[in-house]
Specification:
alpha+beta; 38 strands; about 650 residues; about 25% strand; four-stranded antiparallel sheet; about 30% helix
């Protein structure tokens, strides 16, 4: 051989490695084309489809049960699928072997039903997404019934949300009358219905029952159990009773003495159309700001509606430096902080938006300031912080229903100024100032609220003073002081001198993994210690510190957009300088009608639900005569009517 040729042969590059996933993908396609390698046959509409039982059983619990049952289908490998369109089955088998699913508006629902019957979860996810992208007033009730009948969460929840937004029109649709009792009950129980009054729920139930009176009127009482009676006025309750009686049904109602908070608790909460979301801006001052406050500084909380541009102040509350702040539906909570005299607070205050007032609740067991304060599953969590004793590793939770504080597992590392957020059943503390040596923490602490345990996940960078906003698929982390370099202890040095302020944003998934697939555009300017919240599909970032100076701009970003947009107005409408760190939460504020209902006398007779259906209305009236003009009066001992 010529030496040059020999050298050339040695220079040949090895073949590129083929991934195992690519091999499997290519192999499955060949397998589908080789009937002699198939060991099972599916039969639909008289057509036979050779396939491989191992593949079917590995993906579908339905086929796994068939091929391991010991019945005839397991022995001879033939499975008859009655009432299944052969073209639909061929489409699904093509997806299993090639990963390609062919969609068309006319066949998508049949494809969904077949995939549900065969328990092909990956295909169901894709088909549900296709259907939801094409949801309309004409098909939404049908899609809701599909999701309900097949217990498919993605389609069910998506259709339910769409129904909620258009409920006022859709309960007049002919398809509404085709819902079965279980599907209708689930719909009428939803918080997502955009209705101004519970009378709309009563009207919907009444219309459904009137469609087939002989069959459905006996079910009306079950449907009226979905009506949130505490959110009705006394006149509306009387109207429900009168109209139900006209249908030949006897309706009796429980009455109790309740104030506004009691009404909300007994009702189970407000529906979507009964409140507006507004952003509460909490201008949380530093200690030196407290020592030189102006007269109006006690009103340091502002309610902002970015849609209308309206701004209102919340009632005054005692001013403290760097307290914790969190929100739960229609209530804002402020915990701890530092007083102007240097003492630390353990107080917990609740702002109730229907009542438009503050209430002091049981205090924390430990005074705290500069602590993380989060809401998760009807509980408040006060984590770490600082007081006279120094940095704190302890943590405690407050059960909102029971009104009790309980100690929980201490943090493995003492943290301040972490980006913190709840997500699902866990709490996330991202970066921050670690321990008394003031080293920036390169990691994430994750607290499992069910197990009462902490876990640590490393980060590839240092982060301090960022803000975190939970979203449906994960957590958006915004700004802060950021560096990829190893940081050293820095006594007597400020963070702004140690780390550069950043405009970077990133998306974090449930396990504390920084996602490289979800891109969030950088902020227009570097920001730290900003307020941020999720409001009507957008993330709003308000105020903060730009390098070493305060910043009063407002930005918003909607997932999918290429950049942040600056809100027309600034945080300070008079152009005054913001000298306070900000926190922001999104609060549910009831409509004026409901707020008036909640602000009635401190305790009044309220209809709270249906009485025992076995007890007749006549007997109830005999034992407890109704008040004159059907307007309930206060009983002497808070009993029932």
């Amino acid at each position: 051989m010529d030496p040059a040729e020999e050298d050339g042969a040695n220079d040949e590059q090895p073949e590129a490695a083929v991934s195992l996933k690519a091999c499997f993908s290519q192999g499955l396609k060949h397998l589908h084309q080789r009937p002699e390698l198939c060991d099972a046959t599916l039969i639909a509409g008289g057509k036979r489809f050779p396939c491989n039982r191992a593949l079917l059983a590995s993906i579908s619990p339905y086929f796994q049960a068939i091929f391991t049952s010991g019945f005839k289908e397991s022995r001879d490998g033939e499975v008859l699928l009655e009432d299944m369109d052969p073209s639909v089955l061929q489409n699904l088998l093509g997806y299993l072997y090639s990963g390609e699913l062919v969609f068309s508006p006319g066949s998508a629902e049949d494809l969904f039903i077949a995939a549900s019957r065969l328990q092909l979860s990956p295909a169901l996810t894709l088909i549900s997404r296709f259907l939801m992208e094409r949801i309309s007033p004409e098909n939404c009730l049908r899609l809701y019934m599909l999701g309900h009948d097949h217990n498919q969460p993605a389609l069910l929840h998506g259709a339910l949300r769409y129904l909620g937004l258009h409920f006022g029109l859709l309960f007049e649709h002919q398809d509404f009358l085709q819902l079965d009792l279980r599907a209708l009950t689930r719909l009428l129980s939803s918080d997502h219905l955009v209705v101004a009054s519970e009378m709309d729920i009563f009207r919907a139930a009444q219309r459904w029952a009137r469609a087939e009176p002989s069959k459905r009127l006996p079910m009306l009482e079950t449907l009226l159990g979905c009506v949130r009676f505490p959110l009705l006025t006394q006149e509306e309750v009387a109207q429900v009773q009168a109209e139900t009686e006209q249908l030949g049904q006897q309706l009796e109602v429980h009455w109790q003495d309740l104030d506004g908070a009691g009404r909300l608790q007994m009702s189970g909460g407000l529906r979507q159309g009964m409140y507006q979301e507004k952003i509460i801006c909490i201008k949380v001052p530093r200690l030196r700001d407290i020592l030189s406050v102006s007269e109006d500084m006690d009103c340091y909380m502002e309610c902002l509606n970015p849609i209308t541009g309206s701004r209102t102040k919340l009632p005054a509350l005692e001013l403290v430096a760097l307290p914790g702040c969190s929100v739960l539906d229609h209530r804002v909570y402020i915990s701890g902080g530092k007083h102007a005299d240097g003492s630390y607070s353990c107080a917990l205050h609740e702002y109730n938006s229907p009542a438009d007032c503050w209430t002091q609740l049981p205090a924390m067991s430990t005074p705290r300031s500069v602590h993380m304060f989060l809401t998760c599953k009807q509980k408040l969590f006060a984590l770490s912080g600082w007081n006279d004793a120094g940095p704190l590793a302890s943590a405690e939770s407050f059960d909102v229903a029971q009104q009790v504080w309980t100690s929980i597992a201490s943090l493995p590392i003492i943290l301040r100024f972490s980006a913190s957020a709840p997500y699902k059943n866990k709490l996330y503390l991202i970066g921050g100032d670690a321990d008394s040596d003031e080293v920036v923490y390169k990691g994430i602490l994750i607290y499992d609220t069910h197990l009462d345990t902490w876990a640590q996940v490393p980060l590839e960078f240092s982060l301090h003073g960022a803000v975190a906003v939970p979203m449906e698929a994960g957590i958006c982390v915004i700004g802060g002081f950021f560096s990829r370099k190893v940081t050293q202890p820095y006594p007597n040095r400020r963070f702004s001198q140690l780390l550069p302020c950043t405009s970077k944003c990133f998306f974090m998934q449930e396990a504390g993994i920084v996602s490289k697939e979800v891109a969030i555009p950088p902020l227009p300017v570097p920001l730290a210690f900003a307020g941020a919240t999720f409001f009507q599909g957008k993330i709003y970032v308000i105020g903060g510190v730009c390098t070493s100076r305060t910043h009063d701009a407002i930005y918003h970003w909607q997932p999918g957009e290429a950049a942040w947009t600056q809100y027309p107005e600034n945080l300070t409408s008079q152009g005054t300088i913001v000298r306070r760190v900000l926190k922001c939460v999104t609060l549910k504020v009831p409509t004026l009608k409901l707020r008036a209902l909640m602000q009635e006398a401190s305790a009044s007779r309220v209809a709270v639900g249906l009485a025992d259906p076995q007890i007749s209305l006549e007997k109830n009236e005999k034992d407890h005569p109704p008040p004159s003009d059907l307007a309930p009066q206060r009983p002497s001992s808070g009993g029932e009517l």
